[in-house]
Amino acid sequence: MEKLYTAVVTAKGGRDGHIKSSDGVIDLELKAPKAMGGEDGYANPELLFAGAWGSCYLGALGSVGKRDNVDVKEATVDVHISFNKESEASYNLSAELHVHIPGLDLEKAQKLADAAHKGCPYSKATRGNIDVKIIAE
Questions:
Q1: CATH 3.30.300.20 occupies which residues in the chain?
Q2: pLDDT at residue 122, rounded to an integer
Q3: Which long-range contacts does 83-89 make (Cβ < 8 Å, 24+ apart)?
Q4: Rounded distance, CA 103 to CA 71, Å?
Q5: Which of 16, 37, 101, 119 is most exposed, with minimal Cβ within 10 Å?
Q6: pLDDT class for 30, splitting at 50, 70, 90?
Q7: DSSP string, 27-79
Q8: Average pLDDT of the chain, as a whole number
Q9: Are 123 and 117 in contact (CB under 8 A)?
Q10: What is the C-alpha separation between 66 and 22, in angstroms, rounded?
């Protein structure tokens, strides 16, 4: 395996803390979301994960579209990351990726969406670890 890039982000303070990337591009205060006793208006780990996964997923969709000669430049994905309580001291994540590919019938869109999920590095990292649904719309 050849490393192409390594991101470095330092986190302090947990969900009510701060993150900063080594290159200074990311420099954010974090707060738990209001639904979890925090405050609105701040980034949180689930938002960051959803954004990162969505961006990576669209890259994989672009590769699949190119392979299959399907234009997916206008495609969008809404990534829903849920923070779930399993028990008093145990939590997990679940995800839904809602994929929209304009001009494509749902059956073909679902096939492309599933193929992108198979190749996306974030999808690979979560495979078998969290419940994930890929939904073409």
A1: 45-136
A2: 97
A3: 83/36, 83/46
A4: 9
A5: 37
A6: very high
A7: EEEB---GGGTS-TTSB-HHHHHHHHHHHHHHHHHHHHHHHTT---TT-EEEE
A8: 97
A9: yes
A10: 34
- Looking up tokens 């979560």 gives 126
How confident is the model over 60-84, as pLDDT tens digits?
999 999 999 999 999 999 999 999 9
Instruction: State residue 8 phi and psi, 5-degree precision.
Output: -125, 120
Whats the size of the chain, residue-wise? 137
Contact (Cβ atoms closer than 8 angstroms) between residue 98 and residue 126 = no
CATH 2.20.25.10: which residues of the chain? 1-43
The average pLDDT across 11-24 equals 97
The residues, ordered by sequence, that sit 6+ positions from 12 with a Cβ below 8 Å of its Cβ are 18, 19
pLDDT value at residue 135: 98
Q: Give the mean model confidence (pLDDT) for residues 21-36.
A: 96
What's the CATH code, domain 45-136?
A: 3.30.300.20
CA distance 61 to 59: 5
